[in-house]
């Protein structure tokens, strides 16, 4: 049994051990004051390192380390920190030099735009007062006006660096009524890069003879010092015969530039080809290609303007003989001969204008005489070649041929009449072509918004295209036609190696018809760029890949096996049930109760909720097999499963999809489209053609927003009405879109209300029986709204009416619509039967 003394000894040992483990300084003070020449001794008990201190100034002592400076100086002013792992303790040392208020410190400071920075004005006296920070700008020392604070242990703390904060700084303070300035510090603000560098080369296409020298300068300009210019080539022997000047970083008045020079001292035929200059920075890179042509010897090529070298003229007329020639190297001599003799240039005017390697040469025969008829020869030569071209000039005497003159005027009148008829025909053809309805991209991406609803749209042709989306076209096997329009079509296809090298994936491929114009080709490429710009979402028909080289443009998207929502509702119409006991089979009900608070805004994060039956014994899926994106083509795939698991889930999906539709399905479609549109709104994208025909349904009754665009036969579709030179879906358009051509996210909300009417009427045509004419437009202006559809609840009809508010900004946002419809999914299904003015029992 322990004695009383033993217990006391053990308690003392425990206390001593706890004290020795605590990190502390001796003397234990936050600040210490010394005079120059004093001895500094500070012991750190429990510490293992003095941070930033020379080893010569640190001594080991029992239980710690001692900081020892025999004769302290002004430069020793500052914060000293002792550490032990993640623990630390500090003290600030003032060296009170009577001649200096501030200690010396590093005068070069670097900071990143948007981050904080410290100007290390270290105080040597604790009694300093009236501390200020000065910025040297425009040749003057000016007191800093931006937001900062002064820390007596660290200096001036600047919270948010901007590019205009570059420059010289110093601190000023008062000690004993005397003003003192610190050393001057240089602050370099490193700019955050948000754009690609500019690139220039001094040549674009060069023609040289074997043995001549070639030089090309590549210059890259950017706002950050990481900018770099460099050359590459796709030639088999690479850059073997090329001399590259070292890339130099140049500080410009605004930003930085990098220059690299490519030189070939004596070109050979093997040097012929393309040389690409790249400009890159931390944001990305762009390039410009220079083509080098190499020839064995020079040439002179001459061609004449006009259809024939034989020229008929009347005496007294002025006749012009014109030729075009290409020459390399430059011409040494050129001239005109008449019947093999040099021309009399005092009576006639020969000229020759140069344009690079091209020349435009002419001979003007002023008031030509009959005796000046005959053979005219243009000749030219350079150091390697000689060439010539002959003209035959026939001059008729007008005084001896009056009948011929009358015939001449008859011919001229006839030609003028024919020309007038042809011109009129051309005008009619051009007018018909211009006024012919053209394909227009419906989706618009907003760049900025000014004065309420004055939108500035991004030109989709200027959006970047990442070639990582490219998919080998030979790995596509085409199947049946899914849709066709005046300009393009959509084919079902099988893509081999899209997800795995040994897997075939069913996809949809959008392409142009052979009759499409260049504007349609540009439109399809713009659609591809917009889809890649938007990114991935479960309720959008997602881009999987594309083929843009080596053939016509192909846009590869997810394949949705059940087609569009309009036909899907038609097919299920006769088997519709108002409510069903299978409601618990859907994932959304259990998920909404457990993980989705009603107030949560998911569209801003770009996520989704999948509305599909839960497969017994399987984890809930995030994506179905035929909607999984490319893993290595620009989208990161998630939720990939084994082939056996996919087959089991797909079998269950197909079985569930054969079940009858009920009210919960209609609300589910409404909810999913609202989620997809909220995602588009977050991406600043306006759809402009939101309707059931542009919603596709895939396995698990997942709804996906799309735009058939050029693959829809809008010419024979009564839903599209000609206004101007385009066909528009007028019955789905908001009043501001119809009457003022204003398209906004809130006009998409109006169209969403029409889509809800389609869903809850089971694919009836909006404004049933009404033609789009002046009467229709007048009713819309006067506030007419469609009555509630047959299968609609009171709450859902209230949502429709809120979408059809005359004032665009009084309509709900898509995020609000998601929340409103989400509430409907939580309700008792029997409450859905309370509909306005009619019974929904089947």
From TrEMBL:
Active-site residue list: 689 (proton acceptor)
Ig-like domain location: 197-289
Gene3D superfamilies noted in UniProt: Immunoglobulins, Phosphorylase Kinase, domain 1, Transferase(Phosphotransferase) domain 1
UniProt-annotated stretches for the region Disordered: 636-657
Gene Ontology BP annotations: B cell differentiation; hematopoietic progenitor cell differentiation; Kit signaling pathway; positive regulation of cell migration; positive regulation of receptor signaling pathway via JAK-STAT
Signal peptide: 1-21
Main subcellular localisation: membrane
Ranges of compositional bias, category Acidic residues: 645-654
Residue intervals passing through the bilayer: 408-431
Protein name (record): receptor protein-tyrosine kinase
């Amino acid at each position: 049994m322990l004695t009383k003394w033993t217990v006391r000894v053990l308690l003392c040992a425990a206390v001593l051990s706890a004290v020795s483990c605590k990190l502390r300084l001796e003397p234990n003070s936050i600040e210490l004051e010394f005079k120059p020449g004093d001895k500094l001794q500070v012991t750190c008990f429990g510490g293992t390192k003095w941070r930033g201190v020379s080893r010569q100034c640190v001594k080991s002592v029992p239980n710690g380390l001692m900081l020892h400076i025999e004769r302290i100086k002004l430069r020793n002013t500052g914060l000293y920190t002792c550490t032990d792992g993640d623990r630390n303790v500090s003290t600030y040392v003032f060296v009170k030099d009577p001649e200096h208020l501030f200690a010396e410190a590093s005068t070069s400071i670097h900071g990143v735009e948007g981050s904080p920075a410290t100007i290390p004005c270290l105080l040597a006296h604790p009694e300093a007062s009236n501390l200020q920070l000065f910025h040297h700008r425009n040749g003057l020392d000016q007191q800093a006006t931006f937001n900062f604070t002064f820390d007596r242990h660290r200096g001036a703390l600047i919270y948010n660096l901007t590019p205009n904060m570059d420059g010289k700084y110093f601190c000023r303070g008062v000690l004993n009524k005397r003003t003192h300035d610190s050393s001057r510090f240089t602050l370099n603000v490193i700019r955050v890069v948000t754009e690609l560098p500019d690139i220039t080369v001094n040549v674009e296409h060069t023609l040289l003879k074997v043995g001549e020298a070639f030089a090309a300068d590549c210059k890259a300009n950017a706002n950050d010092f990481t900018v770099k210019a460099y050359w590459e080539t796709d030639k088999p022997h690479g850059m073997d015969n090329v001399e590259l000047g070292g890339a130099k970083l140049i500080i410009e008045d605004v930003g930085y530039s990098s220059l690299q020079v490519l030189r070939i001292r004596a070109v050979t035929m093997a040097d012929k080809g393309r040389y690409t200059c790249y400009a890159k920075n931390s944001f990305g890179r762009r390039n410009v290609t220079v083509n080098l042509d190499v020839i064995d010897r020079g040439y002179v090529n001459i061609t004449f303007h006009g259809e024939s070298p034989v020229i008929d003229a009347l005496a007294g007329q002025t006749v012009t003989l014109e030729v075009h020639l290409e020459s390399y190297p430059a011409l040494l001599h050129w001239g005109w001969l008449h019947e093999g003799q040099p021309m009399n240039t005092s009576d006639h005017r020969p000229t020759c204008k140069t344009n690079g390697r091209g020349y435009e040469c002419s001979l003007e025969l002023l008031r030509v005489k009959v005796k000046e008829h005959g053979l005219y020869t243009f000749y030219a030569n350079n150091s390697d070649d000689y060439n010539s071209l002959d003209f035959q000039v026939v001059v008729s005497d007008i005084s001896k041929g009056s009948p011929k003159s009358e015939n001449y005027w008859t011919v001229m009148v006839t030609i003028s009449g024919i020309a007038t008829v042809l011109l009129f025909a051309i005008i009619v053809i051009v007018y018909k072509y211009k006024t012919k309805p053209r394909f227009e991209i419906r989706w618009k991406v907003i760049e900025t918004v000014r004065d309420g609803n004055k939108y500035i749209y991004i030109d989709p042709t200027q959006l970047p295209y990442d070639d990582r989306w490219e998919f080998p076209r030979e790995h596509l096997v085409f199947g049946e036609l899914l849709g066709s329009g005046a300009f393009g079509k959509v084919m079902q296809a099988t893509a081999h190696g899209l997800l795995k090298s040994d897997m075939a994936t069913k996809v949809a491929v959008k392409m142009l018809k052979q009759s499409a114009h260049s504007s349609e080709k540009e439109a399809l490429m713009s659609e591809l760029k917009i889809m890649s710009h938007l990114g991935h979402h479960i309720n959008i028909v997602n881009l999987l890949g594309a083929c843009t080289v080596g053939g016509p443009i192909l846009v590869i998207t997810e394949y949705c096996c059940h087609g569009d929502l309009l036909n899907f509702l038609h097919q299920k119409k006769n088997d519709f049930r108002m409510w069903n006991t299978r409601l618990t089979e859907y994932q959304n009900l259990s998920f909404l109760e457990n993980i989705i608070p009603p107030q949560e805004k998911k569209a801003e994060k770009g996520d989704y909720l999948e509305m599909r039956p839960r497969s017994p014994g399987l984890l809930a899926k995030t994506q179905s097999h035929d909607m999984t994106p490319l893993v290595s083509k620009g989208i990161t795939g998630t939720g990939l499963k084994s082939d056996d698991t996919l087959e089991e889930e797909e079998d269950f999906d197909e079985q569930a999809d054969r079940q009858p539709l009920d009210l919960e399905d209609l609300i589910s479609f409404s909810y999913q489209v609202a989620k997809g549109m909220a995602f588009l709104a977050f991406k600043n994208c306006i759809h402009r053609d939101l309707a059931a025909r542009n919603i596709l349904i895939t396995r698990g009754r997942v709804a996906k927003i799309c735009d058939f665009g050029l693959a829809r036969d809008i010419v024979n579709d009564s839903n599209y009405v000609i206004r101007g030179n385009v066909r528009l879906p007028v019955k789905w358009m908001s009043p501001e879109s119809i009457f003022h051509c204003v398209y906004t996210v809130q006009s998409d909300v109006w169209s969403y209300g029409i889509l809800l009417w389609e869903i809850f009427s089971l694919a009836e045509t909006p404004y049933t029986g009404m033609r789009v004419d002046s009467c229709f437009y007048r009713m819309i202006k006067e506030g007419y709204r469609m009555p509630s559809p047959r299968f609609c609840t009171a709450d859902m009809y209230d949502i429709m009416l809120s979408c059809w508010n005359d004032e665009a900004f009084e309509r709900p946002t898509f995020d609000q619509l998601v929340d409103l419809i989400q509430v409907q999914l939580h309700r008792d299904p029997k409450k859905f039967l309370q509909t306005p003015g009619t019974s929904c029992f089947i």
